Amino acid sequence: MRLFKVIFIIALITSCQQQKNIELPFYNTPDFTPIFIDQEKEVSEIVTHQIGSFSMSDQNNHKVTEADIKGKIHVANFIFTSCGSICPIMTENMKIIDAGFSGDPQVEILSFSVTPWIDNVEVLKEYTLKNNIKSDNWHFLTGKKSEIYDLARKSYFAEEDIGFTKDSTEFLHTEHVILVDATQRIRGIYNGTLKLDMKQLSEDIQTLKDERDSNIF
Fold first, then answer.
1. Where are the beta strands (DSSP E) in the chain?
2. Is 91 helix (H, G, I), strand (E, B) or coil?
């Protein structure tokens, strides 16, 4: 009987050690209602929303598609180089993320231009040089306006509810920064104009890295 109890306790401890907590919520809808899931449930059955496909060019004239971020954590925001209000602040604050994960093969930063008819590859390259941005995993992206706007509103929920029903004729302007995990599911939304939010984002990226290293999924 005593031996049975010892075996049971060891099995219980082992089971608890094997269980990994999913700390960050998931987001399925543009109202950003958090969905908390424990490790025993099938995420794919509950969280159906994922970032869609895309094809853009970055500041180095390299093609970037959804295949390049597959299996990686990524952060997305939406800016334009001629913006004189929130965009310079967002770019400066995003350097907090860049400082922590520059060159990290598990993390990508995607800054989509919302004025792609102005922000071509050359303009984006000049912008990165002006802002002393040299990281290989921080991409400033340009492409078709309709594709960028649909991606922002339908995939990233960048403007939350107010932008979800808008079309590409209505200008996109948002301070939101979106965190996406390695399975292309949204895990966080942050105010890119606030350093405190960017510091929290940095911590949450590390949480997702730990989650991935623990082989939760």
1. 26-27, 34-35, 55-57, 63-65, 73-79, 107-113, 138-141, 176-180, 186-191
2. helix
Distances (CA, A) of 12 to 3, 7, 8, 17: 14, 9, 6, 9
The closest of 181, 71, 68, 56 to 111, measured between CA atoms, is 56
Tell me the per-residue pLDDT of 43-76, one tens digit each, with 9 for 90 and over: 888 999 999 999 999 999 999 999 999 999 999 9
DSSP string, 142-164: B--HHHHHHIIIIIS-TTHHHHH
Please state whether the predicted TM-score (pTM) of the whole model is above 0.85: yes
Long-range contacts of 205-208 (CB under 8 A, 24+ apart): 205/73, 205/75, 205/97, 205/100, 205/101, 205/107, 205/179, 206/100, 207/23, 207/24, 208/24, 208/73, 208/179, 208/181, 208/182
DSSP label at 103?
T
